[in-house]
Specification:
about 0% strand; mainly alpha; about 75% helix; 4 helices; about 150 residues; Methane Monooxygenase Hydroxylase, Chain G, domain 1; flagellum
Length: about 150
């Protein structure tokens, strides 16, 4: 059963590395002048990989249970302390996940900066001009003057 856990960890590591690669593509798209063409495909790939990772995590937790360990990080730490192969793969997975987390955090910041820039650009375009009665309204007509 430990062989199955090691195999799951290897597959999980590969999937996290693929996810990190997609995040790097996302970084490049977010720093491009016009990212809109690239982002939908990137989001689709990220979503698919998240689904794969969720299934692998569930499989890992089931394998831990079969070995008599609790689910999650605590179970993995216990399993890793009892088997060098598990420990090696767990360490690789943790390092890959940390790299992906850093890139994802960076991408979140890039999105925040872009949104802030867009908000400022909109505010600059929406100049507050005092409404005068001889200005055309949104319908293209001069509004009737009140009080006359």
């Amino acid at each position: 059963m430990k062989d199955a856990l090691v195999a799951t960890l290897v597959e999980e590591y590969s999937t996290v590395e693929a996810f990190a690669s997609i995040l790097t593509l996302e970084t490049k798209a977010l720093t491009a002048l016009s990212p809109l063409e690239q982002l939908p495909g990137i989001v689709e790939k990220k979503t698919a990989l998240i689904g794969v990772l969720a299934k692998l995590e569930a499989a890992r937790d089931a394998q831990l249970a079969e070995l008599g360990f609790p689910a999650g990080r605590s179970g993995m730490e216990l399993a890793a302390s009892s088997d060098a192969r598990i420990a090696t793969q767990w360490d690789l997975l943790q390092k890959a996940a940390e790299r992906a987390r850093r890139v994802n955090t960076n991408n979140g910041e890039l999105i925040r900066v872009r949104m802030d820039y867009n908000q400022r650009a909109l505010q600059a375009l929406q100049v507050n001009v005092p409404r005068k009665t001889n200005f055309y309204g949104p319908d293209g007509r001069v509004p009737a003057q009140s009080g006359l």
